[in-house]
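Reopening this one. Same input as before:
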Amino acid sequence: MHTDHASSLGHTNLEQTTLRHMPCARAPRRTPATINALAATAALAAGLALGGAAEGQVTLEYLSAPPGDWSAAAYGCSADGLTGAVTYFAPRLRAVRWNSAGTGSPLAAPVSTHSTYGWAVSGNGGTVIGWSEFSGSGPSVRRPLIWRSALPPIDLGNLPGMNAGKAVASNFDASVVVGSSEPYAFSNTFHGFRWTPKGGMVALPGPAGLPSMIPTDVSDDGDIVCGAAANVACRVVVDLDQLTAQSLGVLPGMSASTAAAISGDGTTIVGSSSSFFDEKPFKWTSQTGMVALSMPSGFGRALDANSDGSTIVGERSASGGTHAAAWTTNLGFVNLNTYLDAAGVSRGGDTLSTATGVSRDGRVIVGYPYDGKAFRIRNFNAPPPVPGDVDGDGVVDSTDLGVLLSTWGGSGAGDLNGDGIVNSADLGILLSAWT
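Same output, byte for byte:
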């Protein structure tokens, strides 16, 4: 089904396909410990009701760029997943608020000649976070901005001695915003900040011996910030106005890491760890430290996590290209393209390449495909995997057999029965399901 919706400028396209499934039981969501997180739960219930999607009904929506723009990409979503931050690309970049009806409304630039980036949205959906910039014939400019509701953008300013910056994330109600300042626009010399309406800009420290942490995300209560310092993932914890930085390390065999996002409750940080030849997604908690997220093969990045870290989204790149991925507590790795195909939901010929955001309950996922349209999946609830499908492509064939044999005697993707070792029992499962 293809439906045209008019935005405030009269342009946006929405394509949607649906399939009904039997409702699946879900574990109760952990009770949050903060008032803001409790508010997130209420907003989530209200938002799903407004969205009108029935329990078990999977939908895929596309937001196309309006005529004259090349593409659109979604970079984040609210707690209920029904408000998104989008950027339209070219002829001039424009920040966009994407609502539950599938309409994208461009947000005003502080100066008419400036481009704007929509990079994140607050948990309650009321604030879009991003920046504006201009690097034409005049002086280069970059301003960290927030857009509250339909009001004009608010310039957050910069750290002392700095003249440019970006805002990249906020807590649930946008009472805390994080980002980075620079001596001048496009200097690539960044200094992380944490902003509040009362306290203004406060510089973020780095772990011992490392420079300022460059933040990427902040917890719902605003007290834990994640990011990276000198190519090492780290976090900053705020306690009674004291900021303490902690390095999260790197995965074994890797030389660098970056934290991309933090769960709403602040317990889980996700990102990627890399070497010159490799990049793997990770999940970090204070109990487990940094652990790799399983994938059949290739490179990968984790880019966002839901409220308690039980659903993580990102991308995986292999010989067949890059595709949007999810990791769930129950099922592990999920190729979102394969998931939609198995559910009978048409992708309209598109390949979803990157998942950038997930709602607090893990049921709504946003991102972008190869051909430049923001996407939103509602009521994500991964179906049972195909037995023996090691690489997650929906079929059991020689590729799965090759992966299993390559891990024989060890653990990993070939461990189909979950007993910690790849052996003849796993081979039997694979062969019995051969396509």
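So the earlier flakiness isn't reproducible anymore. For the record, The chain has four helices and 30 strands.
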